[in-house]
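Lecture 7 notes. Example A: sequence first, then its structure tokens.
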Amino acid sequence: MSDSIPSSTGSEPGRIVRPPKTGAQGGWLRWLPGLRILREYKLGWLRHDLVAGLVLTTMLVPVGIAYAVASGVPGIYGLYATIVPLLAYALCGPSRIMVLGPDSSLAAVILAVVLPLSGGDPMRAVTLAGMMAIISGTLCIGAGLARLGFITELLSKPIRYGYMNGIAVTVLISQLPKMFGFSVTDAGPLRKSFAIVAAILDGRANWIAGMVGAGTLAVILLLKKRERVPGILLAVVGATVIVGAFDLAASAHLSVLGTLPQGLPAFAIPWITYADIVPVLVGGCAVALVSFADTSVLSRTYAARSGTYIDPNQEMIGLGAANLAAGLFQGFPISSSSSRTPVAEAAGAKTQLTGVVGAFSVALLLTVAPNLLQHLPSSALAAVVIASAIGLMEVRDLRRIYRIQRWEFWLSIACFVGVAVLGAIPGIGLAIVIAVIEFLWDGWRPHSAVLGRADGVKGYHDLTRYPAARLIPGLVLFRWDAPLFFANAELFQERVLDAAAASPTPVRWLVIAAEPVTSVDVTAADVVAELDETLRAAGIQLCFAEMKDPVKDQLKRFGLLAQLGEEIFFPTLGAAVNNYLETHPVEWNDWENRSP
């Protein structure tokens, strides 16, 4: 019996076999991929999943606690947000080895909502964070059912880099006071940075705490590239042993985790006040966007490695179910983990049973040994979060983008500055606005060209690229390289009329090379009708070539096809040119018709 996971790549050279998509499989099982995997489970995978689950647990505990504290809630709730979401995703998530839980990429977003609203009350902070998880989960499930899994594709890579780099810096700044044993009340990354410097200059830093945190951070970073060495576990255990052995909590006034409450998370609906609805709703939406963007990228990466297909809509449902479960069982918003998933993979994980084993192991810790981590220093937890924030930063690929596409690099920098200066949630909103503008700009001001016939080159080509290309007397060939919609319709009309006015000979026909036009809306259709009337008044016939059938169907629904007439639509540009030459006696000798 083979231990490997079936691949979607066919064994026959030159052929790729794609498995059926999740949504295409009938029955209620399509919503529960975990049960389908369980039905296909091989006994040979069990040993790998059990071992990987135990190895994963060594990271789930310290990381879960650290990210909870970074998110503004007590550490125990990081373990609650680990147990139940792992079980929910194992049932509803499509990825075989994805690990979900508290994550550094969400810490700044959660903290931005929880900190000002909770007023220092930890239980109120838990309630607010729990409702954010419910909102995020509901949005993700709804978007997945509506098959909107493609929406994160609207965020380009440079923009994703920008806001993630900004979040990384925000998280790092928020953890520096904890690492050095003091606190600051200033809000916003920029003001908080000035407050940190002022506090250190005033002598408020606990340098023993700083040394413990710095040592923890150094160990994590040094062992980071050794996937089979649990660097975070070794660093945290080492810091805990040192603090406990030398009683640094009392002698050096180090803040420690203390005894964890014994028991498992209970079902509880996090009721919030009316005044909290708007900020929590905005925060939940931001969490949904960031968490799904991260999860979809990581999911596709591991799917490509294993040769399997991951339905992005089911991925959104799985993530939503995990967040919903977290919110209803005393947790807070969670996402995929780019640090714990590689640990599961390196340990030999085959299926989501790895996450189930990890969840039960954490639950066992809470019920049997809640005092195990009582000497864990807060500065070490801050170091864990800082190490993760450093891992979020992307510099190398941004250098490549700077070399090949400067304007996209500066878009990324603008998103970074927005998050770092304005804060996580306003910065993410700015990133979305920039993404929409970037998306619309290509369609709003697209490329267009007047085409000519270049000797020795098949077809008709842009005059700016082929200045020696010849124009057929009385004929203008115009290409529009974008869909026609309300934002660019007037520009389309303007450029067509400019092309006609720039013709060296009186124009009889103007042919639109419409192959790049993928859609037409009502506004654009009305502009085309107006353009046709303007050209007719000047004695010019408007024609179209290579228009796609779905676009012609749209024109027919708008009533424009009847106005223009079926005869002015040609299957190819060559057919339009030939028809023009047959009906209009002009002096034209094509290079292909010349004698050798």
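Example B, a different protein, same format:
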Amino acid sequence: MRSRATFAALGLALIAGHSAAASASIVVGAKNFTEGAVLAEIMAQTIESQTDIEVVRRLNLAGTQVCFEALRAGEIDVYAEYTGTALRNLVGDEALHLSPAQVYATVSREVARRFGLTWLAPFGFENTYVMLVTAQTSARLQLTTMSDLHRHKLRYGISHEFLRRPDGMPGLRSAYRLDEDTTTGLAHDFSYQALADGAVDVIDGYSTDAKILRYGLVPLRDDRNFFPPYEAAPLIRSDLEQRAPGVTTALLLLAGRIDDSAMRRLNYQVEMERREPAAVAAEFLSDLGVKSDRQIQVSQRHGFLSLLYQRRWQTLELTRRHLALTIGAVALAAVIGIPLGVVASRRPTLARAALGLAATLQTIPSIALLAFMLPLFGIGVTPALVALLLYAILPILRNTVTGLRGIEERLVDVGRGLGMSDSEILRQVELPLAAPVLMAGIRTATVISVGTATLAAFIGAGGLGDPIVTGLATTDYALVLCGALPAAMLAIALDALLGVVEMWTTPRGLRAD
């Protein structure tokens, strides 16, 4: 607990202007797909219009488990969840042929009993899973139901979460006796393009996805009722009304107000018309008679450069946050890595152990390391800082050891002959001579951290990963570039700046002309 508090304090100190939410504020979370962002905005703007409570948004969180654990830990206060997802994934109920009312009653009771969370009334639409094929494949192979799939050896392109969910491929294989030629894990929104391009034959999707209309796809009927009803509803912390009176009353205004066609239309406006989720939500609420007080800046898009210019202030703020995350992590890594490298350079056994451990950490995929941080540090700045710190330690530690070991022994002997103590030799001889190699490690760690920090958006840490994640979810590649290009420029600028610092810290006698 002490380590968590320490890193949290460091993170808050490093992010200028970032302060803990006040007691009169709540946090609305969302999974990293279009519908999650739209529903989060609808809930947030409804709360803002009906109460004086400040609403903090934590969008693009990486999937059901991240959102649910964040809710249980108090990192967020509400997010939109689906009753079928809760039934299969959270409650572990495998019952079939349940009505929407039965599913809602089961998850309401069990989630309250096991986890102390509360379901509010559903929004009014159901977003069930569907298996999708192109119209040409459907006609050629006579595929109309999911039972028809087992008659053919097909190529499946399946979203990563669906691959491991009990109500996903594991259960589907058993229920429908699928005969798979290949099964490839794909990002959900990329799978549609893969299907349209003929790279795969079958994908999973959501019944309210706008891309079903865009690509003219055929949803296969779930004739064995494998998928339970997936009604969307706000899932909240049970103490929310006590901490923020009026919030649940405000959210109940949305009960039964969003039907299937309305949700599909909202998704279409974001994904196909390239509108901001906040603007789409505000317009929808206005049609319902709920006036949003949120100031929405409507982008008039005419290409990537135009969008980049329109988002210039947002990009500047995201860059500031990204820079703070990067500098904070590298600074902490240097504070730990350089002293450890000095000690390890004198002890070969310690050097092997420390470098081996740091190298092992580097082999863990970035998103997996971030996921490992969640149970310990929750979501937000703290787990991102810890993950970036662990990635930055190896190049700093390795270059410190290499730089110190590369110093000629006779130079150290000269210092001893002049009567210098070991600490004086370290400060005045060894570290200055090792400075070029040591700074090269810091430069490498910084560039790595800039790139890795873009993934911190998946755990609510913000930065330039936000537009990248949002753009990937909506297949808006111009928006992806609005995050990727500044991130690349930031990495180049920091590397150049540290190159100057490297020159300043290198003894004059070692500098190239």
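Note on Example B: Residues 329 and 388 are 6 Å apart (CA to CA). Strands lie at 25-31, 54-61, 78-82, 117-119, 129-134, 154-159, 180-186, 202-206, 217-220, 232-237.
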